[in-house]
Specification:
With 370 residues, this protein is an alpha+beta fold. 23% of the residues lie in helices and 31% in strands. Strands 10-11-12-9-3-13 form a 6-stranded mixed beta sheet, sandwiched between helices. It has a 6-stranded antiparallel β-barrel with strand order 14-17-16-15-18-19. It has a 5-stranded antiparallel beta sheet with strand order 5-6-7-4-8, with helices on one face. Helix 1 crosses helix 6 and helix 4 crosses helix 5. The relative contact order is 0.14.
Length: 370
């Protein structure tokens, strides 16, 4: 479905695979990024799918199905969670909000129906009613250091802590998220009735926000190294390869699907690949597509995910590369020369994990008894 905000002046549509569209930008792609970084921009993210799970058993049920500890999640809070396959590979990344007897999950565009179908198969005799609600609800994001002032001027609640959730008077909620960009572009997600997107947007614009396209949000998201499922991950991705191990996985909870892989790789301390931020030379007008190979000489050493033009950093992208790739390696993505950001050098193993790896190697080589 197409967003009503595409009727605003300057809007350039970003067509979605499953149909419909949102605004890629409103005529000024790079200035819109700066407005998010320095002011308060309203971004239409109504392409995301929305799943609702009401029912008294919802938290214990989702606790058992996901990578996150949800059994005692308080009302008015949220978190991130992963749905994994039996081998620990990522199938869905969900951002959750728990409010008034319902757990809300927003997920990648076009993936909500598959997730809802799987959840319905897992209901058994439990008191839960997972339902796809994308047709009725839409996600917007207010981004920038002046976002809280806009919410205050509009008379809307202002959550103070990350993942805090507060209800909106006329339906929906606001949820504080981790900042993006260089860490100063605050983010508040807003779930609103889809029929009221234009009216709710007008209220925030009247309070001092400006419209910014999805391209601007994506640029600051990549700068902040926040991955998206299916774009910055592939069918082999395990949580340990991405920052989701910190944000969407509880390492001390009980059994869940895929846990054995996550725990084993965490204890050994070295997943097959690692997420890095790449700087590309930007000579080509066409940016590499997600999934394009990252090469070192004649060897394929990884794959690129999101690639964007950033208003200060130039062309940057998130990539998954093999652990063996040196921080200063000469890399290419297609014809573009690429280098790894200096902040993304691989972490050194601590003594405990190094000893665990040595023991595993010894067992596999039959040099010690099993």
């Amino acid at each position: 479905m197409s967003s009503p905000l595409l009727q605003r002046p300057g809007a350039v549509a970003l067509d979605l695979e499953g149909g419909g569209s949102v605004a890629a930008h409103y005529g000024e792609p790079l200035p819109e990024q700066r407005r998010l970084a320095e002011g308060a921009g309203l971004v239409d993210r109504s392409d995301r799918d929305v799943v609702a799970v009401p029912g008294p058993d919802r938290l214990s049920w989702l606790h058992d199905l996901t990578s996150q500890h949800l059994r005692a999640m308080p009302d008015g809070t949220g978190t991130e969670a992963l749905f994994l396959d039996p081998n620990g590979r990522v199938e869905h990344h969900a951002v959750l909000a728990e409010l008034a007897g319902t757990t809300w999950a927003d997920v990648e565009p076009g993936t909500g129906a598959a997730l809802t179908g799987w959840l319905q198969k897992m209901q058994f005799m439990l008191r839960v009613e997972p339902e796809l609600r994308t047709a009725g609800w839409a996600l917007l994001s207010l981004v920038g250091p002046r976002g809280d002032a806009v919410l205050t001027a509009a008379g809307w609640p202002v959550p103070s802590e990350v993942h805090e959730v507060a209800p909106l008077a006329d339906g929906g909620w606001v949820r504080r998220m981790p900042a993006i960009g260089d860490g100063t572009a605050a983010v508040v997600d807003l779930l609103v009735p889809r029929a009221e997107v234009a009216a709710r947007a007008d209220a925030l614009l009247a309070a001092g926000a400006v419209l910014a396209g999805l391209d601007a949000y994506e640029a600051l998201r990549v700068e902040a190294r926040r991955p998206r499922a299916g774009i910055d991950s592939d069918q082999r991705t395990i949580p340990n390869e991405l920052v989701w191990l910190d944000s969407a996985v509880h390492l001390d909870k009980g059994c869940y699907r895929g846990q054995e892989t996550v725990a084993r790789v965490h204890n050994l301390g070295r997943p097959p690949r690692r997420q890095v931020l790449l700087h590309l030379d930007g000579m080509s007008e066409v940016l590499p597509a997600p999934g394009s190979p990252v090469t070192a000489g004649t060897r394929e050493v990884g794959r690129v995910g999101s690639v964007v033009r950033h208003h200060e950093l130039g062309v940057i992208g998130l990539a998954l590369v093999k652990q063996s790739v040196a921080p200063d390696a000469d890399l290419r993505v297609g014809e573009a020369v690429a280098v790894i950001d200096p902040d993304d050098a691989p972490a050194a193993l601590d003594d405990t994990r190094a000893a665990a790896r040595d023991r595993v190697r010894a067992v596999r080589s039959a040099t010690i008894g099993r």
